[in-house]
Amino acid sequence: MAVPTYSTGDPLLDFLYTLFNGIAEVPLFSSPITGVLILAGVFLASRKAGAMMVLAGLIGAGVAILAGAPYGLVTFGLFGYNSILTGMAFWSGPFVKANKATFFISIFGAAITAFTWMAFSHLMGDLFVLNGLAQSWAIPGFTSSFIFTTWALMYASKRFGHDIWPAPPPPQKEELIAGSNNPNTNDGFKWTVKEFMIATLKGVSQVTFVENWKTGVFWVVGLTLAFELAPFIAGVQDRPWWTNAYTAQWDEFSPLYLAGLMALLGSGIGVAMAILTKLPTAEIRLGLHGFNQVLVMIALTSFVPLTPQSFMMAVFATIGCSFLMPALQRFFGQWGLPALTGPFVFTAWVFLLATSGFQNIPAGIGWSRP
Amino acid sequence: MAVPTYSTGDPLLDFLYTLFNGIAEVPLFSSPITGVLILAGVFLASRKAGAMMVLAGLIGAGVAILAGAPYGLVTFGLFGYNSILTGMAFWSGPFVKANKATFFISIFGAAITAFTWMAFSHLMGDLFVLNGLAQSWAIPGFTSSFIFTTWALMYASKRFGHDIWPAPPPPQKEELIAGSNNPNTNDGFKWTVKEFMIATLKGVSQVTFVENWKTGVFWVVGLTLAFELAPFIAGVQDRPWWTNAYTAQWDEFSPLYLAGLMALLGSGIGVAMAILTKLPTAEIRLGLHGFNQVLVMIALTSFVPLTPQSFMMAVFATIGCSFLMPALQRFFGQWGLPALTGPFVFTAWVFLLATSGFQNIPAGIGWSRP
Amino acid sequence: MAVPTYSTGDPLLDFLYTLFNGIAEVPLFSSPITGVLILAGVFLASRKAGAMMVLAGLIGAGVAILAGAPYGLVTFGLFGYNSILTGMAFWSGPFVKANKATFFISIFGAAITAFTWMAFSHLMGDLFVLNGLAQSWAIPGFTSSFIFTTWALMYASKRFGHDIWPAPPPPQKEELIAGSNNPNTNDGFKWTVKEFMIATLKGVSQVTFVENWKTGVFWVVGLTLAFELAPFIAGVQDRPWWTNAYTAQWDEFSPLYLAGLMALLGSGIGVAMAILTKLPTAEIRLGLHGFNQVLVMIALTSFVPLTPQSFMMAVFATIGCSFLMPALQRFFGQWGLPALTGPFVFTAWVFLLATSGFQNIPAGIGWSRP
């Protein structure tokens, strides 16, 4: 078995695994170290954000236990990450005000996300069963439950008679290219290596709505030190502490501790593509064109065995995601909503679904191909 | 077998079952008594609405028979309810004018809904087949075929050069909360128990676009008297007349004739949540924040065995639906379309899909879990 | 086996099959003659369009081979048609400018469409597996990968700081019917048989964004001469040259060479419905209300055995598509996007899904029913 169990029987240990694996699952794998470092990075940027990260993750796990979810999924952290993202999106993020009303919505959102997570997990996971369970092809739900829940809650809350959304900024006049319907985004900004690196690191930190390059450094370090630290359980599991959470879907003993590098690479591709397609400089510098690409690069190299061919596909998908991001940004933007990690989710789904039919791309254990 | 057959071999009896079960299926189960009482309540409010209810239901059933649908599904009423809703939405409802053009669209809509119903029934019903047919997990299509068909037809008809849509009311100025982008909905209205009950009953009647608390009373009585009245067929079926249609998905002999109570409870939760989130009072009083919740409470207690745990989940889902309703209202409202029963359908799907993985929630016969 | 193999082992022959079958698959079946005649018709209207048709089709096939797609699917043309449509939509079509920026997007779009095609093909093809692979029900992906890819790329490119979209025309004032919210489209135009035929033929040519009735004639002739010209391969395939590609999903020896007639009929129904529902005359004369209907008529008579009953259903579906077209036109139009072949794809999916449950409609080999 390539994936470890974190259900130890010790309540405190289980609690810690549930919490930190739940945070580490935001970038899609379970390593308590990754979780600790991400949480530290988030606290560094905002204590409010860090507190909600902990609270929302525990609420998701608690609701799942109450409803009777398999306990192993809870300690593995799978009920954490989506609830965390829903909770944080309504609290301390750049979208809505942080007050009593949004606090209640954050809590409620974190709780209901446990149900939407299970629904999407079942939907994507059990769609393709060929010739019985032994030959099933699953697709991960990724952060789909977070995005759909949050879009719905955000859009609903615009109608509420409570003080939730900040007053809109005065409308900006968009200058068009002569004879064209495309915007003239030329603002004379000169990209330097340093500015590029800052935008890239902010792209990493933006995965949890934080715009802070130092938080990004914590992320990259945490992603790199992706040791599973799986518990020793007599008769069940005897696994060294250093197994690789990032590669555990296909080989937990792989020495490729490359999740941090992939995150940087993904964010960097996003920044480069945004510069190339001349998106507004301000957005690029905030890291908005990096966080989806971070997740695409990690997802397509951790759920698919990393080979030169699958790496090429991941890069290609990341470029594709750099088209989908401005599309969904504009799409949801018209309703005053953020694109969230929608571009990542849809890109990763398409490429994992496609992997099923492309024999030059290897497939993982139970993902994409039997 | 928990679900009865209504195919008697007697054309007149089959006709009556097809008609009244088709109406009773609007609130998701098959009882001729429920059908008769709902139809009476609708006629009470509008003869036009009642006539279209009968006509559209029969068209849906007729098209299904022509196309070769299993006859048992037709007499069970499954080709009635969606066609009825599509037909009524274009006729005598609050949306479009009632004239020759909309009459034709109603008829065409009722007919094509037989095909979309079969498509959604197949899609949701046959998605999850694990280890062969014996272990299949189905999800009901609910009123999905009605909503997608009606949204498409409505939106198309806005482009037609025929007199279909009423002239829009003059735009109303929305007052915002100071320093916020949220509306100030405070209009000084004081909710009393009586007003709350009227809004709740109207919420029930709004399931078929009727705003009339007396119609709501007919609904509640009809839902309560959910006797199946299944025909005696020698050698096939010997079943007492009083079996419970509302609980027939998990125990037809259950004494819990609670469908009417669930409808009231669902609508009441919807009204309470709308007051709590400060939605416009006028909408709440029209019953617009009740009808989706009525269907969520019935669906999640009749397709899932009713236990304290599943009841808690149904209430939680109904609260969730009270977020999804204003979201979809605003979403479709921007295009001049109603949300219809979209909030119910999506909420019920998510919670039935989630049920598959939550072991504290029991599952029905063939629904959600094998 | 009803479907031929085109993998001959001869690189040049394989190349030609890949190219021309890829073009012929735009109207949903594989015949090199159909492909040659369609390409000729497109060249007749625009050399640019013809060149992109060839280029985009080869890029789709090339990317598929690189990624390791089954070679037989490539020579059958299945990686051609969607890439062709994506490529052409960004080049020489009526939507965006033809310049260096859109050329690159066309090329990138054609390449990534190979992945989205595989994803949709897997999604729709492997959803319904009952009791193992022997009893699988598949639904074709049709041109879904083209439409979703192109919508995303188009919408993204509106944000790019490059000169891609033409300056919008000055807003036109829409005159309403008195007391109604519907447009007054009465412009005094008198439809003659000749005008009707021109609109119908343009409806056929519009499948690849060409507005030219002569191109439509090439299409109709090419669709009629749907000989498979399958290669003789010793020990593998000995098949006469004249087998019918249009009917090959259910009987390759059928003498019903009716694809051209179905195209005309579909487009004609579309024009008639648009006149009946009083859509703007200018749109009808451009052929915009024909191309989706062309594809619906072909799809529902070539993936479903052609009988009087299935023919009736196809006509009914084509009428339904004539509602969905103005709906999606308005829906995507608000964002400055075309409806593309969305109305066809969704209509054909619904009716093929419904076919699974309607026993009076025959089903093909592996499509819709086991």
What does this molecule look like?
Three copies of one chain form a homotrimer. The first copy, chain A, is mainly α. In chain A, 55% of the residues lie in helices and 1% in strands. Chain A contains 14 helices and two strands. In chain A, strands 1-2 form a two-stranded antiparallel ribbon. Chain A is globular. The mean pLDDT of chain A is 95. Chains in contact: A-B, A-C, B-C.
Decide which structural class fits the backbone of chain A: mainly alpha
For the residues shown, what is the average pLDDT of chain A?
95
Oligomer: homotrimer
Major β-sheet profile of chain A: 2 strands, antiparallel
Helix-strand pattern of chain A, N to C? Answer: HHHHHHEEHHHHHHHH
Write a brief structural summary:
The structure is a homotrimer of 370-residue chains. Chain A has helices at 11-24, 32-45, 47-67, 71-75, 81-89, 100-125, 144-157, 193-205, 213-224, 259-276, 281-286, 291-302, 308-333, 342-355; strands at 128-129, 136-137.
